[in-house]
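Example record for the data management plan.
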Amino acid sequence: MRNKYIYLIILTFLFLLSDKVYADSQFDVTIDGKDVSVKMVNVEVNKTKLDMAFNAYTDKGRTFVPIRELTESLGADVEWDNSTKSASISLGQKEIKLKIGSNIIYINGVKTKLEENSIPKFAEYKEPRIETKTMVPLRFLSEAFGYDVDWNGETKTASVLSSKKETSKAQKEETKSKDKEKIKTASLNNTDKGVKSLNGNNALFTSNYEKMETNQLNKTAEEEAYKAAGLSIPDLEEEERVITKRFKIDGPLTIVIDPGHGGKDSGAIMESGLTEKELNLKVAGRLYELLKKEEGYEVIITRTEDEFIKLVDRAAISNDNGAEIFLSIHFNSSDNKEAKGIEVLYASESKVKIKTVEQKHFANELLKALIEETGCSSRGLKNRPDLVVLNKTKNVSALAELGFMSNEEDYKNIVDDNYLDKLANGLFKGIKNYVNKYGDK
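Corresponding structural encoding:
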């Protein structure tokens, strides 16, 4: 009997201890004038634990950390403007500007949006003393500066690690030089899992990463695939879906510009070393500059540098920001060196259950304006409901193929900066024509 009582006492003690440990992992802070219960997390930077007087925490599934502690650990410089409650963070060649309470953020001057749960906030701590700290989203800032972020659920630890893709400028130049040499000497029959060989006039290789991701996504449960693109169950309900020809503009018109490929995914690669991902970014950058001058437009660009972004993440950027329009920019290539011209792809609303606006009209306005502006031959419109950036974006969306890198005539145009200006102008006019004809304010 005595042993039984001892056993019960030990169990009770362990229960109370575990309950205390759990309670100790939570604490209250004041955010936007309200007391909020948050969960404490550990943070490591390059495997060194950050020793912080004021703990990092998770709130609504996002990890927040005091701005000074994070930026100093990354080696970044911070300038704080108390009058506007904004901060400018610089590291290497990148500058990020953010404002407390705002979802608008600038990366090297390019405007983008944070999701609602990642907005920087002031948090008033009670322990170890009453003090207000500027809290910023750990993952977004770290990844924006080129770091990888891992999460260990058992230890409640967020680990920030130098990305394997980050190398010194000298290393990058050396790698680039070696890559060009490999391209010139590689056999056209040698391929790896991410590269497909071409026998076209100029293009030597085109990457296969997009096809690989699409195939993988097709094997994923439908609900999970849509969730990865920022869509919830209500978005998938078809019973009350009404298809309209026109679309509603409620406040500023949000447009997402998506330069295709990037990072390890080069798209088509020319013998000269020119890559599709470079061309996509050049045209997207020109288009972004034109659009941001328009009153009433909120313009988001998915990438501003050579970085790899998953297709589903590109769709999520559009969905998370409630964009009305999504446009992905690409160039074409083919084994048939005679293939040339511009085509615009869309996903018919009849084939994609999350669409509520007729899709073909946007693609058509883009194509008409592009042909008028450039004089290039038209390959028409293509219905491609199999493409992730078209079938996982809830809004009006299109993918513009702006010419064939593998065709001699198209290639001569593509390498001309003046022609790239024309392409950007054509896209700009196409967007404006569509909005003016089909948008309801």
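Summary line stored alongside the record: The longest helix spans residues 2-24.
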